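PROTOCOL LOG
Step 1. Enter all chains and additional molecules of the complex.
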Amino acid sequence: MASRSPSKSQKPLSPNIQLYRPQLTSVLSILNRLTGVLLSIAAIALVSWLLAAAAGQQAYAIVQGVFASWTGQVTLFGCTFAFFLHFFGGIRHLVWDTVHGFELRTIYMSGWAVVAASIVMTAVSWIVSVYMGR
Amino acid sequence: MIIESSKQVSRNHLFKRFPIPTNFGVTKDSRVNRGKAWPAPAGVTRTKSFEIYRYDPDSGRGPQVDTFEVDLDDCGPMVLDALIWIKNKVDSTLTFRRSCREGVCGSCAMNMDGTNWLACTRFISEMESPAKIYPLANMKIIKDLVPDQTHVFAQYAAIEPWLQSKTPTPERERRQSVEERGQIDGYYECILCFCCTSGCPSHWWNGNRFLGPAVLLQAWRWLTDSRDEAVEERLDKLEDPFRLYRCHTILNCTRTCPKGLNPGKAIAHIKKAMIERQR
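Step 2. Run joint prediction.
Step 3. Record the structure below.
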C-alpha cells in the first residue's frame, strides 16, 4: 500500500532509554559493562606501575607519587570497587550460564548480594591495606 | 528492594529515568514535545492526571504528550478503563489497541510509568501522579499508543514457530508423557505482547539482527517440545553472534513479563543447548 503523504512514511520511534525505568536488572548490567571498561584502563596503570618498578628507583618514585596523591587514592578506591563489582557480577553471570538463579526473587537477591559484597570487600581491602601500610 | 514477581510495582527508586535528557539521541521525527492539556470535566471531585503520548500521522506534527484529567468516580479501576473513559468522554481520537480486557490477548501492551505491562491488568491506583502512558518502548509508531509490530512478527516468523517432524505422520495424535508436556510449561503461555522485547536494551541497540526475548522464548518453546524433530536445524539458525548472542542476560524481560514468564531463562537454556551439542 503506497503512502498518501510523505509524513506517513516516516513513523516516529517511541522513546526507549529516555523513558524506560532504571531497574536493578538493567543498572547492574550497564555497571558491569562500565566497570569492565574502567578496569581495562586501570590495567594500563597497573602495568605502568610495574614497568616503573622495573625501570629503577627514580621512575618508581614518580609513579608512586602519582598513586599516593589525593586524586590517585580516590581513583584507586574507585577501581577497587569497580573490580569487586565486576568480579562478583561475573560470578553471577557464570551461575546464570548453568541455567540457575533465574527466578525473579533470586535475580534480585543475587543482584543486591553483588552490590553488598562489593561494598564490604572494598572496605575490607582498604582497611587492611591502610593498616598494613603503616 | 527485592522483587518477588513481575506484577510487583517498585515503590522506591533512585532514578525514575536514566539521567539523560528526554530527547537524548532522538531523531527529529521522534522528538517528543509538550502537547495539549485537557481540563477536568466540570463538577468532578476525584481526578487523576494522565500524561499520554500522542502522535497523529496526518497532523504533520511530531509526537507530543497530552495531559488528561480522569474522573475516578466515573471510571473503572484499570488503566485501560481510564483510556476508554478518555476516548468516550474527552477525546475520541485517542487511539490504542485493546480486546480481551483481562490479560489474555496482549493487545493493550504499553509503557506505563516507565515499564511495559498490559493496560488492562494495571490498576490506576498503582500508577504515579501524573500517570505516564507511552506506547511500547523502541517501536515505530503508527498512531498514539499503536506500535507497528511488523518487524517483531517477522522475527517471530523467522524461527518457524510450528511443529516440524521427520517421522511419518502417525495415525493418531503425537503423544507426550506428563513430563514431556511439562517441558513447555512456562513457555507456551506467551501471548506475544512484546513487552519483554520492547523493554530489552540489547534489542534497542541491535533490534535489526538480535531476535529479542519474546521470539527467543518461542524458539525454546519449540526446541524443548518432545514432538519437534528439527532441534539441530533450529539451533543452526540461532547460532549467530547477533540472533541469539546479543542477549547479555540483562533480564529486563523477566522483570516485565505480564504473564510472569521467564524469557531470560529460556534464552539461557538455548545457550546451554548450543554448548552441549558441541560435545
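Step 4. Note key features.
Chain A is about 80% helix and 0% strand.
Chain A has one domain: 25-133.
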